[in-house]
Amino acid sequence: MPRPGLIGAALAGGIVGSLLTVALLFVAAPGVLSSKIVRAGLLADPRILSDTVDALRDAQYAPILAANRAAIETPFGSSWKGAAKPEVTLVEFFDYACPYCKASNPAVDRLLQEDKGLRVVYRELPILGPDSLTAARLSLEASKLGRFARFHDTLWAAGRPSPETNAQAAVAAGIAPQPAPDPAIELELNGNMKLAGQLGATGTPLFVIGDRVMNGAVGYDMLKDAIAKARAKA
Asked: Which has fewest Cβ within 10 Å: 71, 150, 151, 189?
């Protein structure tokens, strides 16, 4: 029968040996261990990767947002919908000719209906041709007169910007079908282009909600989540 001292020594030796093995693995093969741990984590919860990407992007644009918050969130004229005294502001850089912007409209409209503390600020970013640029100028002209929503909603309902649909929206807003030269409108358009470039825009729509910058038709759920996070930080 083995003596108790030998059994204790054997157990102690086994434990020490296991600890040494673990230590050697960490020292000799940290890359293998770390990659396996990361892989296991990603397989268990794939959101880790998207959350990490979001955090890195937010950190990248935080200084730009901080320096330009008022310029981004202050609407031109009447180019906004929703709360007059908002708890959260959603900013959308858009182009009337952009199919992804049009696809995003139902989600934005739904959020406005559901959230009475939300304001949506619309920033013109006409990057898809001369008809888009004309539509943007007309929209801002209507906006200066307090008629942005009339022009905006009519043009989206009419279809892609063209001389005919632009004129139809202009009539609804009570303005001329051709935009008049206006330095304030050109300043707004140039400013929007500059801001969108600083925020890494690769196209439209570009959404800014709190500290989150999102490019593309990200959908209702992502917009709602960003609004909730912005409200929690307010």
From this structure: 71
